Queue: 4 jobs
Job 1
Amino acid sequence: MSEQPQGWRVVVIANVLPIVEPLIETVRGMGHDVVAWVLQRRPYAVDMPPPPWGDISDKNSPQGVNLIFVREKADLAGILRGLEPDLALCWGFSWKIPQEALDVPRHGIVNQHPALLPRHRGPIPLSWALREGDDVFGVTWHRMDAELDTGAILAQSSIPILDEETTMFETGPRLVPAGLALLPEVFEKLAAGDPGQPQGEEGASWGGMLDEDYATIDWSTQTAREIHNQVRAWNFAFGMGPVDGPFAELDGKRVKVTRTLLTDPGDGSPAVETADGTIWVLEREPGE
C-alpha cells in the first residue's frame, strides 16, 4: 500500500453518535482534520423519542469539530461550500444528498453502506440480509452519486451474522470496526484518483421498508430460523416504515415479538413449536 494522504479537511455527515465518535477518532488518527459533523435536525413538530444516546448537544458530541444541524437537504451544498472540505464521509444519514452538494468536496462524498452492494441497496439493508437468510452483513464504502447506493465501490468486506445477536446494539460493535478498517484503502484510492469499481445490476436488490407481507408470524408454517430472522429484521428496521411488526398469537393473545433465540436461554422463557422445531420468545409486547 502506498503512503497515506494526510492533512485533508474532512466533514462527517451522520446521525448516529456511536458511529461518529470512532469515525472521527479514526480519521484524525490518519492525519486529517475533521472540521465538522453535519447531522439532520430532528423535526420539533413531531413527537419522537430521543435516540438511546440522547439528543446531540455540545455536552455529548466529539470536541474540536463544528457541530452543524441541517434543517433540510437543500441546505447541504451551501453549508459544505462554507466548510471547504477535501472530502465528506457519510454514514448513517437518511437523506438522499443532492448532486449540488456531492460536487462540493474536492474528492466527493463517500458513503458507508452496510451491505455487499449492489445487493440490498436502500434504507434498511441489515433487515433484508436477515430476511433473505444471508450468512454475512456486508460493509461497502462507495462514491455517492445522485441515486441511492449506486455509486462506484471503493472497498468492501463483511462480518458473519451470529444467531445470538438480536439487535444493532449487539452487532454494531463488530460492524463499525469493520467499516473503519477499510478507511486507509478508501483514502489511498481517493488520493490516487481511483474512480472505484462501477456497480453492475447483476445481483442488485432493494432493501426497502418492511410491510404487511412480513408483519405476521405463523408458528405452524415458518421454521424457527425464519421466525428468528423475521424478529431480528424488524429490530434492525428501527421502527421505520408504514407498519409495525412482527405480531403473533401467543398464549391466546396477539403480541408483538421483539426478541427470540434458537437455543434454550434457561431462564424460563416461553418455548414455541414451529414448523421444524422450537424457538424461545425472550421478549414480547402487547399487540395492537
Job 2
Amino acid sequence: MNKSMIDVQWSFISIFTASLAHFILRIVLGRELGPEGLGVYTLAFTIYLFGMQFAAFGIGSALTKYVAEFIDDHATIRKYVSSGITSSIITGALMGIVLYLLAPSIAISFFKVPELEELIQLTAICYPFIAIQKAVLGTLNGFRRMHLYALLVITQNVTVVGVSLALVLIFGMGVKGAVIGFVAPTIIIGVLSSILIRNSLQKSSLWHIPALRETIVFGFYVVLGNSISLVNSQISVITVGYYLTSYEVGIYAIAVLLGETLTVIPSAVQSVTFPITASLYGKGDINGIRNVIFSTMKKTFIISVIITVFLAIFGQYLIMFLFTHEFLPAYIPLLILLVGNLIIAPFLAVAATFASIGKVHIPFQINAIFCILNLLLNIFLIPLFGIIGAALATTISLIIGFTVFTIVLIFYLKIDLIPSET
C-alpha cells in the first residue's frame, strides 16, 4: 500500500472520529434537552466555529504549505513552524478577548437568547489553545505524519465526548456542561499538542520576521476564504436563529448534521491532496496536479451518490431511531440539503488546490460573492418557508458555488475533461 493511501486512511479515521463525536453529542443533547436545548447549543457552537477560524488565522494551512514545500530544508521549516506557533498564540488571544466582550451583544441583541452570553464567554477562553493545536495539525499534515495527526484529533474528540457526556448525563449540567465539555479538553490538549512537533521548534525562530510575515499574510487569505466558506455553511443556522426560535434551530440542526455526513470523506481526502498538490506544484508538475484532481473528484462523487441514496431512503427511520419523533420535521430539509452536498462533495475533496498553487485569494473572492447570495436567499426564503427555506437557500448556493469554482479551477490549471495521463 502506497504512502498516499495510508495517509488517506489516517485522515479518514481522524475526520470520522471528529464527525462521530459531533454526531454522538447531538444525539445525547437532542434526547436529553429536546429541540430547544439542542438549538441553544447549536447557536453557541456555531459562534465558536466562527471564532475558531479567526483564532487560528489560517496559520495551520500556511504551515502545511511551507513545510511540504521545504520538506528537505529543516532549518527553514523550523523558522516557519516556530514563528507559526507564536502567531497562533497572538491571534488566538486576540480573538478570545474580542468574542468575550461581544458576548452580550451577540446573545441578547442579535439572537435574543440571554443564556447564550455565558456560553460564548466560556468558549472565548480556549481560543489561544485551539490556535496552537491547529498550527500543530498543519505542521504534521505538511510532514505527512498522518498517524500523529490522527492521534491528536482522535484524542481531542474522544476526550470531548467523554467529558461532555459526564457533565450532561451524570452531573446534569445541561447545555453549559456540553460547552464546558469541549472547552476544557481543548485547553489541555492544545497545551500538550506542541510536544508532537518539538523537534521542529526553535527558540531563536519564535520571532523570525520574514517567516512571521509570510505565514500571517498567507493565513490572512486562508482565514478570509475559510471564514466565508463557514459563513456559507452556517448562515442558514444563524438566520434561522434570528428569524425563528431555538426550537426550529434544533430541528434544522439535525437536518444539517445528517446532510454533512456527505462531507466526511471529501474532508479526509482534502487533507491529503493538499500537501500532495503543494509538493507537485513545488516541482512544477502541473500535469500531476491535474491527474490528482480528476481522479479524486470522480471517486468522491461515486461514493457520495451511494451515501445520498441511503440517507434519502432511510432518513426518517434514522431520525426516529437516533433522536425522537419531535425531530421528524427535519426530514424534508435533509432531502434538500442532500442535493447540494452531493454536488459540492467532489470539489471539497480538492478545494485546497487553490492554496497549494499559491492562489489562496481566489476562494475568498468567490466565496465572498456567494456569501452575499446565500444570505439574501436565506433572508428571502426563511420568512416564507421556515427551515425548508433555509435548506433551499443553502442548496442553491452550493450548486452555483460548485459550478463557478470548477470553472475557475479549470481555467487556472488548464484541465481538460480527461487528464492527459491516468
Job 3
Amino acid sequence: MTILDLFDDFPLDIYSLSIGAVILAAVVIAYKLLSRFISRTGKRLEMEPHVVNALRLILRVGAIVSASSAVFTIFELPTSMFVGGSALIGAVLGFGSSQTINNVVAGFYVLITQPFRVMDYVRIGDLEGQVAEITINYTNLYTPTFNLLKVPNTYVMNSRVLNMTHEGFIKYTFDLGFSHDIPSADIMERCIQPAIEEFQEKHEADQLRMPEAYLDDSDRLSLTFLFRFFIPKGDAKKLYILKPELLSMIMRRWDELKRS
C-alpha cells in the first residue's frame, strides 16, 4: 500500500473541506484573540513577562492539538497515517532538532524554578546583564555593551546563576587591584573615599545608596578592593554608564597619589 492508497479510504468532498476550513479558521481566530487577551490581562495585572510567555505557550500547544484533532476527525484520516506521521515527525525532531528540544525542556525548567525574573540583573556563567525576556528557547540579556544577547536556556540550566537583584535594587559588585607601592589606608583615604564622595554628590539622585568599598584581598602582588553599587531594579543602562565614571574618578586620584 502506498501513501496515495491511504487517501482513497476517506472522502474529500466540498462539504468536508468547507467544514475543515471553517474550523481551522476558528481555531486561528480564537488563538489570536486569546493571545491578545492574555497579553492585555498580563499588563493590567502586572504579571511577570515569563508567566505571560508560559501561558502563551500552553495556548499555542492547545491550538495545535485542537486543529490536528479536528482535521483527523472531519476527514476521517486512518490511524495508520497518524502513527506514521508521528513517527516521521519524531525522527526529524530527534535527529535534526535535538538542541531545540533541549532548549524547550530547559525553558520549562527556567520558567518553573524561576532562578531569576525579567528585569533582574544576573550573572550566568561568564555572561552578565539584565534579563530582558525569558522565552521557551532563550533568555535575552541586556549586556554592558548595550546589546541584546540571546542565551540558550540549556546554557542557563547548566551554568551557575548569580542574581544580583534584591529588595527592589541591583547590588552590583566589582573589584579593583592596586599595587603595594602605597599603603592600603592611604589608598582608601586619599583615593577611593574622595572619589566615592565626589561621585555620590554628582549622582545622588541616580542611586539608592552611596557606593561602598572595602579591602577584599591582599597578596604579594597587589591589594584588591571590592566595590558595591546600588542601582534601582531594571535600570541597568544607568549602571553601565555610572560604573566607568566612578572607575575614572578613582584612577585619576590614584595617578595623582602615585605622583605625590
Job 4
Amino acid sequence: MNTVILTGGEDDQISVKTKSYVQVLISIYLFALHLAGDVQLKRYWLDQISLAADGAHRLLQEQWNQIKQLAEEYAKAPQVFVLGTGPNLGTAEEGSLKIIEMAKMYSECQELEDFFHGRLREVDQNSPLFFIAPQGHASRRVLDFLTVTDMIQVPSIVLTNNVTSGIQRLATHVIELPVSLDEFATPLLYILPMHVFGYEMALQRGYDPTARRYDIVPQKVRYQGES
C-alpha cells in the first residue's frame, strides 16, 4: 500500500527551501515514534522537539548578528567546507548545499573523519571550515582538528552547545547553541545557523538568496537607488 505523509511547508515559497527541511525532519521523527509505540519514549522526543524549537527562536533573536559578522568576514572566501558526523552528516550536507544555492559559491561537506584523513591537506588560510559538533563524540573529536587548523592558521567555526576550554582556545569562532539536546535531536537546531550563514553570505556577495541557482544569470541584489 502506498502512503503519503503531508509534512507541511507549503508556505515555504522561495526556491531555496529552508523551513520545509526541518518540517520534513520532524515528520520523520514523529513517524518513527508512532512505529515505536512507546508512550514514555514519545513524551521524551516530543520534549526534545519542543526544546529544539525554543533554541531556534533564541538563536534567531540573539545570535543572528554574530552569524552575519561571520559572513562579512568571509564574503570573499573562495570556498566553504562544512564538516559533520553521525546524525549531523546530513546537516553538514544541507548546510553546504544552501551555501551553494544562496551564495552562488563553491562549498563542500564531508564526514569529519574522512576529511581529517584526506581533504584537510587542501585547506588554506582563506577558506573557513564549519564544524558541526554538539556535545558528545563530535565535540571531543573536533579538538584534534582544531589543533591542526590553529597550527596552519586555517579559519575554523565551531557550532556546539559544549564550549570547552580547548574549543575556546583553538577555534577561530564559536557559535554556542542556546540549548542542549539529545544528539539525535540536534539536526533540528544545528541546521539553522547554516541557513542563516548562507543567506547572509549571499547578501554580502551581492546575490539574491532566493534566486534559483539554475538561472542563466544569477539575480543580483538591488539596493536603494540602483536602476
